[in-house]
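Weekly structure sync - notes
Attendees: PM, LS, DV (DV joined late)
Agenda: review two folding runs queued last week.

Item 1: First target. Sequence and structure tokens pasted below for the record.
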Amino acid sequence: MGYNVSDANSYLVITGGGIEDVKICKKAWVWSWQKHTRISISPFDFEITLQAMTIEKLQFSLPAVFTIGPEDQMDALCKYAKILTGRGANNANKASNEATPTGRNHVQDIVKGIIEGETRVIVSGMTMEEIFKERQVFKTKVIENVQSELNQFGLKIYNANVKELQDTAGSEYFKFLSRKAHEGASNQAKIDVANAQMIGNIGEAEKRGKTRQEISKIDAATAVLETQRKSEKAKADAELTETQTRLNMGINLANIQATRQAEAKDAELQRDVETKRAEMELERRRATDLVHAKINREAAQQKADAAFYTDNKTADALLYKQQQDAEAKFLTINKTADANLYSRQKDAEAGYLRSVREADAAFYAAKKEAEGVAEKAKAYEQLSKVLGGPQGLLQYMMLQDNTYEKLALANAKAVNGLQPKITVWNTGAAAGSGEGEDQVVGPIRNILQSLPPLLTTINEQTGIAPPGWLAKMGEGSGSGSQALEVKAKGKGLTNGNIPSHQGGK
């Protein structure tokens, strides 16, 4: 029993009498019927190296460092204290007043299992390129998924650092990828150096060529100017010499040939004038003919262009009309074919439905007929049981269809013209002493008296005996006729050999 105070980075966890569940506080009185321990909320670091596989079935090693500790909230501390404390703590730690990371190894094992499971789930749905390019997204997903699992233990991720991916044993993926990047950078550097050298050499050659071109242009311009100056000087000297010569000739010949030269000069000038005039006229006529020829050529060309344009447009119009006619004909044929196809389809569907309906009707009729026959067979079976068997049913049906009368008629026709045996039965009132009988029994007696002659005649002529429940045939005397015994309910009437029976031929 005593007053206990925890450190700044720890809490007291008290259980026992007077406490419903768990009490977490910084300081409290602890009585003898209570127990207490200290839990530290200081986060701890641990490193893991995870073996994972991407969606491309590439294995790699993922080293990471996580900083995890109990969350400084009462609900989280209660979860942490009830679930994760007490494991791995010895008696010495319980007796000491210092807060210890109780069950720290157990917590690390749980966190490691959660991180490995969630990380493998995330990595299995990503490619290696996505993991490289979206490192922050990958890290965020891992933290969110792991944190959602750690909430049930009251733990919190304070920091997560995912290191560089590494090759697993027997894999050289990252090694070759690094070599590829290195070789690509080296080759690109060589290409950049060669491009820079090429640009420098080309620029230098261009500058040299432009320098030579400018020098050549200046030298050529200078030479041209010098030649022009020399030509102008020579021309000026020639003109001066010619002028001096003409002056001298004029002075020397002025006095001697003044008249001749004047006349010759006049004739020469006149000739030159005529020559110039003729040349002018010739040039004028040539120009006129040339203008007319150009005009005619241009007019002919315009006419030809107009005719060509007209023919071209006519051909285009004819081609367009033919195309439209062909398209209209094609559409007409297509629509007609579609209509015929649709009509055939509908006829086929109607024929199919008609055949199906007829088949269904025939099947239904046959089914009903079969059912009727089956019901009739059942009724005949029940009737056969009532009539004493198949023989009784057969005789009953023969009576129903008047088979006996038909057979008698057929036999009569068969023996027509012969001398058949005729049996006469007298069943009238004179046959017995009916005068004194009761009038109620008379109709029944008359019915019973009418049966023996009929049944005896059928038996004698066809050999068919009546059923046992109706009458019993016995051996007679004399002419070989049989005695008939008819049984009837009521008064027990029995009719044996009737005295009024007469036989004749």
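Item 2: Second target, run right after the first with the same settings.
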Amino acid sequence: MAASAADVRSILSIPNPSASGSGSGAQQPKKPQPTERAKKPEGIPRELYALIGPSAPTLAAQFAKPRLKQKPNLGGGGRVKWEWRPFKNGARSDGLRLSHWVKANTDPEAEYPFAKYNVQPPHYVYSQDEYNRLLEDPKWTKEETDYLFELVRQYDGRFYVIHDRYEYPSPEGSTRSLEDLRDRYFSVCRKLVRNRPWPGDEASKAALLSSLSFDKDREVMRKQYVISLENRTPEQIAEEDALYLELEKLKENERRFKKDREELLRTLLGIESGLPDIPVDEEGLQGMSTDTKKKKKGIAGSVEPQTPITPSTASTVPLAQPQPKKTAKSAAYDALHCIYRHGETQTSTSSKAPHSPVHLRSSKIPQLKQATAQRIAQVLNEVGVVHNRLVMPTRDNIARLEAVIHDAGIVVEKKKALDKVEQDLKTVKARLAALRGEAPEEDAGDVPQTPMEVEEGAEDSVVDGRAQSVMSTKSTRSRKQARRSMSISSADTSVGPNKRQKR
């Protein structure tokens, strides 16, 4: 064993250097050893604990590993003593005593816990007076009815057992079926419930009567159907399977035909077909043009035009189903209450869904077209009709005003066509007079406008392309021929006098 420096100093009687420096022979007390380092709690990483130290012990619960579910302590950990004891069942009326295993610390006089599940159905009893007034049946006697109710009470309403134990001699020599027993019992119970005073409310009485309902004919038919299913031969089963498969094929064909028909209607009629899901583009034809551009990018070399009513799953607006026909009763109700139903027929050719929000009648006054507004307004002012305001804008008044404006538009169109024809006649008469060398008539000589000016005026006044008719086209051709003939005749008249003077 190696000796330390202190042992060597004490053997050689050499003073301690620290004691000699201080000038005292007493040894300096030893320094207290540092306390042991706190143990790292479980769940905290070593690097994290080295940084924070023991100053944050609440983090240990967050980083702790989850424990497994503890086993429940059911028995308390001690032994349980069991005893074989007799018990009395309060649900039995015969006084039979049986025995069972129970814990030794239970009360021997405690009530049997399973007696509460012995629920007895209500038993109906009737008097002689009630039977004579309500329950008489030519097929049943009172003695047989009493026998049936006694069996129902004895076997707790289990009719299969009751039918098996039923031994009452029938006067006709025939046996009672299960349906006969049930029908007789439930019919008697329903009559008793209906004619006796009921302490509760009507809802509970109706529920009890519905529980006592029994349809004998339906039950007999059901059993016969079940028996016929059980007695089928293999050939009949195979035939039924084949018919079932054929029926499914027909249904599938019908669904496919209906789908193809709806697609065809969507393609041909669009939103006017009345189908529930019609694709509608909110931007109209402009949006469809962008879709066609995308399709053309995907299909190289395709020159077929894309129709704007092609279905797309981008936006679908569910439309209302076609309304049923109006009956006389509903029409009379609407007329009595001044109800007018919108949206029954749709005449619009737009691709938007029909929608009529809440509005005033005055906002539906028809507006004049910009092309013919001035002329139609002049015609209406001549007859004394104000087209931009109604004192009472009812539905009938608005319809009449719209009809008047429409008739005025027709009058303006007819007047325009008449003016064109008169101008053509004047031009032709002037051309004929020039060809014959005659003086023009007084009314035809003062022609304020040439055919070109008339055509230009007509083009300025008519903005809508529909105003140009076949008559204007023919008049344009006749004016061109008149110009050529007039130029030729003027050349002849200018040359004629010179030739005569030379001659």
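Discussion on item 2: The first helix runs from residue 5 to 12.
Action: LS to circulate a short write-up before next sync.
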